[in-house]
């Protein structure tokens, strides 16, 4: 249980925001109970996960405007990246000319994530804005924990430190078979980056890890069939977020 304390808001009113003084406690991500007249509640963290070629970016680009149309204030960020330091790390971890040891790779991703959380994600959430993240900790658990064989628990530990324990309110996991993912990547006409060259065994291990994570936490992780048309995948994502949207609007 987290003590939240007293909050005061002043100035002009905004839609969907409560103002005044209040005291309350937080019982989990985004869940505040307030006494008195209340203050702005924490934003929601929505993460989009899946293997390369599953359509995460396509979904993210459609989901954010759809949520804004429903009255949700939301910002879209990507991982690794979103802030200057993390973008520089992104260039390193994707560079196929570099040989990166598995532990170094896991730590680089965690470092980028730590900077993004401190500089952008945490302030946005604290101000009541939702954040949609194209990848988050689950990616490291699947890719470095399982794919690189470092172990889920070890990778979870460094990321708990990196994010100060930040947990998504909802995760949308896009599931797609290997053949379709490969065809989509080929259609992009881009040279594969360092991680995309990891090989079939790596991605099979990562896919299995994603499935295990989803089975262990079905309330948070909602699995979507990414083989459907983009509009149908978007509809499934909105259904998976409907309860959170209803609470916010």
Entry summary:
It is built from 8 helices and 8 strands. The protein has helices spanning 56-69, 84-94, 102-126, 137-147, 152-163, 178-188, 200-216, 230-248, and strands spanning 2-7, 22-28, 31-36, 45-50, 74-78, 130-134, 170-175, 221-225. The two termini are 25 Å apart.
Q: Could you give the count of β-strands?
A: 8
Derived from helix and strand composition plus strand pairing, the structural class reads alpha/beta
Under the CATH scheme, the architecture of the largest domain is 3-Layer(aba) Sandwich
CATH topology of the largest domain: Rossmann fold
Helix content estimate: 40-55%
Radius of gyration: 19 Å
Largest beta-sheet characterization? 5 strands, parallel
What does this structure look like?
The protein folds into 2 domains: 1-41, no CATH class; 43-248, Rossmann fold, CATH 3.40.50.300. The chain is built from 8 helices and 8 strands. It has helices at 56-69, 84-94, 102-126, 137-147, 152-163, 178-188, 200-216, 230-248, and strands at 2-7, 22-28, 31-36, 45-50, 74-78, 130-134, 170-175, 221-225. The protein has a 5-stranded parallel sheet with strand order 5-6-4-7-8, sandwiched between helices. Helix 2 runs antiparallel to helix 3 (102-126), helix 3 packs antiparallel against helix 4 and helix 4 (137-147) runs antiparallel to helix 5. It is globular and about 45 Å long. The relative contact order is 0.17.
């Amino acid at each position: 249980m987290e003590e939240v304390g007293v909050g005061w808001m002043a100035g002009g009113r905004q839609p969907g925001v409560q103002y005044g003084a209040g005291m309350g406690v937080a019982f989990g991500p985004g869940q505040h109970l307030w006494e008195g007249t209340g203050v702005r509640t924490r934003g929601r963290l929505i993460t989009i996960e899946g293997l390369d070629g599953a359509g995460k970016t396509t979904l993210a680009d459609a989901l954010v405007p759809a949520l804004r149309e429903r009255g949700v204030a939301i910002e879209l960020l990507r991982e690794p990246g979103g802030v200057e330091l993390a973008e520089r790390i992104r260039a390193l971890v994707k560079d196929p000319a570099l040989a990166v040891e598995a532990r170094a790779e896991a730590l680089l991703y965690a470092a980028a994530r730590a900077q993004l959380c401190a500089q952008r994600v945490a302030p946005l959430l604290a101000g009541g804005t939702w954040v949609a993240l194209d990848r988050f900790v689950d990616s490291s658990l699947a890719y470095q924990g399982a794919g690189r064989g470092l172990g889920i628990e070890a990778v979870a530990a460094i990321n708990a430190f990196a994010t100060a324990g930040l947990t998504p309110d909802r995760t949308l996991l896009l599931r797609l078979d290997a053949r379709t993912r490969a065809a989509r990547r080929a259609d992009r006409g881009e040279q594969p980056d360092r991680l995309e060259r990891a090989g079939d065994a790596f991605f099979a291990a990562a896919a299995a890890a994603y499935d295990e994570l989803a089975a262990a936490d079905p309330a948070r992780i909602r699995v979507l069939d990414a083989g459907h048309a983009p509009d149908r995948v978007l509809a499934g994502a909105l259904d998976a977020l409907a309860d959170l949207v209803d609470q916010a609007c």
